Amino acid sequence: MDQHGIPARGSRGPGALEPWKEMSAEELEKQYSPSRWVVRVEPEEALRTFSGKGTEATKNAQATRRCQLHAPYGDGKGDRMDIYFPDVQSEALPFFLFFHGGYWQSGSKDQSAFMVDPLTAQGVAVAVVDYDIAPKGSLDQMVDQVTRSIMFIQKRYPCNEGIYLCGHSAGAHLASMVLLASWTEHGVVPNLRGLFLVSGIYDLEPFVHTSNNALLLLTLEDALRNSPQQRLDVAPAPPAGLACPILVMVGEHESPEFHRQSWEFCQTLCRGGWKASFKKLPDVDHFSIIENLTKKDYVVTQIIMKTISQKC
Ligand SMILES: N[C@@H](CC(=O)c1ccccc1NC=O)C(=O)O
Question: Start and end of every BD-FAE-like domain (predicted)?
């Protein structure tokens, strides 16, 4: 380990498996191509449907909900979020922040407001956050943007009834990096009450060896610095009051590597003293798991609402 608490190359938690190191380049590529594990349609169609449904949900949310679009959470051009409000006029609301996926190089808030309708209908304010994807932004910059977006909500709504983070895929990675933030250094401690990590990737080392890294150009050092799976094993225990529930979820129809990433991350969180649990969602893949958040009766929507209403 070096002086910044960053583990040396190759160090992992106890019992960690690294099956990806035995894979051919072709197999590794497949494991880290979520669309190739969708069983209901062809990969291209899965991607097309996902962005279509996200765009439609966003248009619907903007047409039906009271909202503040492109709210600047910082001075950068890309520091923007859309905030959608429930009918009740109050600042003492629970806030649900969503970080989209797209391997840190695609996606935007404009196609990611999936959960706005069911959550705002039940009294939750939803912020869909943009960050500067590659090649404009580096991963370190994206982590900083996500951290600042949370500080912005806390400062603007100090009476909030809890801040809940949800990220999908690369967005789950960004949300999980927040667990390593030193909030006291930032001068504001957010009222974090829950994290919902959906189909995420938490150890970036295998990703570096796939074609997805062509735009991001992560070095091994960048990957280790930005791998909560490796850093949380050597990080101090969560500060009292910050040990909010963390739900790590993955779809049944995702690759073994995505299952392993979620399962091992959940174990690492538990070892580190966080209140984490793991859930494999039946009948869904990397994309339908998020598409289903448009529905009030989907099990994940219900888990989110239950967590928020319990305020635990
Ligand atoms: N090229 C990828 C696309 C992808 O990984 C993705 C697409 C949309 C939202 C999230 C994604 N993955 C992780 O952030 C694939 O093969 O599925």
Answer: 81-180
Encode pLDDT of 206-263 as tens digits: 999 999 999 999 999 999 999 999 999 888 778 766 679 999 999 999 999 999 999 9
What residues flank ligand 1, with Cβ below 6 Å?
33-35, 50, 101-103, 107, 169-170
Q: Return the residue whose CA atom lies nearest to atom 1 of ligand 1.
A: 33
Distance, in Å, from the CA atom of 81 to the CA atom of 78, rounded to the nearest integer, reads 9
pLDDT digits (tens, 9 = 90+) for 76-98: 999 999 999 999 988 899 999 99
The pTM score is: 0.95
Eight-class DSSP state of 274: -
Q: How far is the CA of 3 from the centre of ligand 1 (A)?
A: 34
Pick the closest to residue 193 from 233, 244, 148 (CA basis): 244
Nearest CA to ligand 1 atom 11: 102
Nearest in space to 166 (alpha carbons), one of 208, 128, 214: 128
| Amino acid sitting at position 121 | A
Given CATH 3.30.470.30, say whether it is the number of domain 26-310: no
Instruction: Tell me phi and psi for residue 168, to 5 degrees.
Output: -115, 125
- Cα of 70 vs centre of ligand 1, distance in Å, is 24
53-75 CB burial, b ≥16 within 10 A, e <16: bbeebbeebeeebebeeebebee
What is the Cβ-side half-sphere exposure of residue 243, based on CA atoms within 13 angstroms?
Answer: 14
Contact between residue 13 and residue 5 where contact means Cβ atoms under 8 Å apart: no
CA distance 4 to 16: 22
